[in-house]
Amino acid sequence: MKPPVTTRQYAPSSPKPGLTRPLTSEERRRAQRVLLRVSVRIRLAGKTQAIEGATHTVSATGGLIVLSEALPQGTKLTIENITTQKMVEAHVARPPQYSSEGSLVPIEFSAPAPNFWNVFFPPVIN
């Protein structure tokens, strides 16, 4: 007969061994990112001409949009998902980055819009 296996019990308030390290940027992220190419149309207040672009990555809180021109941080805009024709208010969250595809503009929705990209995002567990 084998002896019973004992397991260590930890108090609920004490951290588990190995979980006391700082969180990585991926673990701190509010929402999961998904590589997804979606055609979008950006409208800026006071401009009649819309800017056509496509997503690089998307999340439940916004996305990284590839545009032919850079938009400064803080710019308020309306983004349209051309496929679904849904529109949502957003703003440029950080300064754009530049790549061979064009300007990578990080946008954040003004209000939660988890269904805007027509993708299911599992909840983030920290």
Biggest β-sheet: count, sense, barrel?
A: 6 strands, antiparallel, barrel
| CATH architecture descriptor of the domain at 32-109 | Beta Barrel
How many beta strands in the DSSP annotation?
8
Order of helices and strands: HEEEEEEEE
Structural class: mainly beta
The average pLDDT value, as a whole number, equals: 83
Ends distance: 41 Å
Topology:
Elements: H1 25-28, E1 34-35, E2 39-44, E3 51-59, E4 62-67, E5 76-81, E6 86-92, E7 97-99, E8 102-109
Antiparallel strand pairs: 1-3, 2-3, 2-5, 3-4, 4-8, 5-6, 6-8, 7-8
What this model shows, in words?
The protein is mainly β and 126 residues long. The chain has a domain at 32-109: Thrombin, subunit H, CATH 2.40.10. Helix content is 3%, strand content 37%. The protein has 1 helix and 8 strands. A 6-stranded antiparallel beta barrel has the order 2-3-4-8-6-5. It is elongated, with a radius of gyration of 21 Å. The two termini are 41 Å apart.
Brief rundown of the structure:
With 126 residues, the protein is mainly beta. The protein has one helix at 25-28; strands spanning 34-35, 39-44, 51-59, 62-67, 76-81, 86-92, 97-99, 102-109.
